[in-house]
Design goal:
Layout (H helix, E strand, L loop, with lengths): L2 E6 L15 E2 L2 E2 H9 L5 E6 L2 H8 L7 E4 L7 H10 L5 E6 L7 H10 L5 E5 L10 E4 H13 L5 H5 L5 E5 H4 L15 H16 L5 H5 L1
Parallel strand pairs: 1-4, 1-6, 4-5, 7-9
Antiparallel strand pairs: 2-3, 6-8, 7-8
Helix pairs in contact: 3-5
């Protein structure tokens, strides 16, 4: 199947004082943890940044086959980043991910990619109804048009795009737990404390212990 991955790396990182995607976990930038997990599942990987200056920083660490694209609007929001990606890829479907989810599950992503055929999108949904639009697969053309409409109406959040799409398949986290029991695929790093938690999780994973510390902290 012809598919791509769009990784959003243009957000603010005030709590870190540096680019969040370049923060090191186990000696490796967070964005590389993400790219390495999905590289064999997609045909192309696009990293969306907010400026040329930010792009130059990421270019120093990204694999040569990765493409860096700058937001088409001077507005930092996931929706603008997503639309920038959709506008610059030619694949029929695209995975959308943030740059700060180092434990993204290959098994979960593989399932989402398998389920996206003939759908507008495949989006994980928690039992309380909350959705994960930034770890989902989209039909590029349909998502692009919906994102444009949402921005034209003044919206800046991903849910405003999703609400305009028809033919979405939602996948319950109850199903995803069968592939990723602790759902650590959704663990994102926003603060130095989160980074410490991630380091502890990684150490535990390396020891092969089954219980996730992240589960305790949720």
């Amino acid at each position: 199947m012809n598919n791509s991955a769009i990784i959003l790396a243009g957000g603010f990182s005030k709590r870190f004082g540096q680019e969040k995607g370049l923060v090191l976990l186990d000696g490796k930038p967070l964005i590389l943890h993400v790219i390495e997990k999905i590289s064999t599942l997609v045909n192309k990987c696009v990293v969306v940044v907010s400026s040329n200056t930010q792009g130059e920083k990421f270019n120093r660490v990204l694999p040569p086959e990765s493409e860096i694209i700058v937001d088409f609007m001077d507005v930092r929001s996931p929706l603008v980043g997503a639309l920038t990606g959709f506008k610059n890829i030619s694949s029929e479907y695209s995975l959308l991910l943030p740059c700060d989810t180092p434990f993204v599950s290959r098994s979960v992503i593989s399932l989402l990619l398998e389920l996206c055929v003939n759908k507008a999108a495949v989006i994980p949904r928690w039992t309380n109804g909350y959705i994960e639009p930034l770890q989902a697969v989209y039909n590029v053309d349909l998502a692009k048009e919906s994102a444009k409409k949402a921005l034209t109406e003044g919206s800046r959040d991903m849910c405003s795009m999703v609400e305009k799409m028809r033919g979405i398949r939602y996948v319950s986290t109850l199903v995803l737990r069968q592939l990723d029991p602790q759902l650590s695929t959704f663990f994102n790093i926003n603060t130095p404390i989160d980074l410490k938690k991630a380091e502890a999780i990684l150490k535990r994973q390396k020891r092969g212990e089954g219980e996730s510390l992240w589960k305790r902290w949720r």
